[in-house]
Amino acid sequence: MNYARIAGTGSYLPEKVLTNADLEKMIDTTAEWVVERTGVEERHIAAPGETTCDLSEQAARRALAAAGVEPTDIDLIVLGTTTPDHVFPSVATQLQHRLGCYGGPAFDVQAVCTGFVYALDIANRFIQTGAVRRALVVGADTFTRIINWQDRGTCILFGDGAGAVVLEAASEPGIIDSRLGADGRYKELLWVPAGVSSGYEQTRENAAFVEMRGSEVFKVAVTTLKEIAEQILAANHLTVTDLNWLIPHQANRRILSATAKRLGLPEERMVDCVRTHGNTSAASVPLALDVAVRDGRIQRGDTLLLEGFGGGFTWGAVLLKY
Ligand code: UT7
Hints:
With 322 residues, the chain is an alpha/beta fold. The chain has 9 helices and 13 strands. The protein has helices at 20-26, 31-38, 52-67, 91-99, 115-128, 214-235, 253-263, 274-277, 284-294; strands at residues 3-12, 16-19, 42-45, 76-80, 106-109, 134-141, 161-170, 175-182, 190-191, 211-212, 245-248, 303-310, 314-321. Strand 12 (303-310) and strand 13 form a beta hairpin. The structure holds oxa(dethia)-CoA. Pathway: Lipid metabolism; fatty acid biosynthesis. Residues 233-322 form the Beta-ketoacyl-[acyl-carrier-protein] synthase III C-terminal domain.
């Protein structure tokens, strides 16, 4: 069996920044409430006309440059998103076209905030079987496009962005283990009621926007992020002390803190970009990974645990040596 390793990372955030002071002018909230309850101080918002594919392309080009490979070296593109440019074709095929690396499989994965972790797991399996040698794995969302800017329970949390990694075949890990899960019974805690098959017409007001029962999502998120970390570590005869870095889905500062506390992990060993990114859905994990690689916190040889949690619910964990 082959292993897969991360050869390079990249990310991109749109230029426009929306601060909590800006939100104070839009909804009934205070900057203090938002920081205290979420940890978010600002988030990036895609410009009008700037799409998920645009963000993905920037992140992908940076990951390719970091890995020192050409687009034509890529055999597979797997892209996690919930906010594709079009109903079809997929963002992945359009990204392939932008990069000019034609012929290999390219597809999107829809697992909401777990999208990148699902995509990474899938690409890893393609490499393990020998089907491909090099994959581009992207998590990208323009999630603010499906946000109701009148809903103070959701609009404070989310931002836009993209992150990417180049994954390549290696003789040793790389990715040590990877586990995914889902439980569809939780659909209505976090969802967009409108859709292609059920109808875009507004059957009720704001059906095309994210609806979330925040405090209920919060509880399941904390429990799940703790459990999946413990499961994957135990299955690989490791403990929290073996981890150099935990990179959880950047949902809410309090979720990150509660997860670290329950795991007994010092918060200094958790990558936290919530303050400046907000929740960027599928982009959150690869964005945080790239930030910590580029600022030198994450070093080659470090043991990392990446964790996703999102609508569905979906979840996943990837344990790897960077
Ligand atoms: O990415 C997928 C995963 N998503 C998440 O993990 C999100 C998880 N949930 C959360 O992050 C939090 O639940 C929120 C930040 C969304 C909300 O925080 P909370 O502490 O759970 O607040 P709550 O929903 O229980 O609401 C408490 C109070 C309510 O007022 P009353 O009913 O007690 O009078 C809300 O109306 O806070 C009020 N509230 C606000 N007040 C000021 C809700 N949003 C705001 C706001 N500004 N923006």
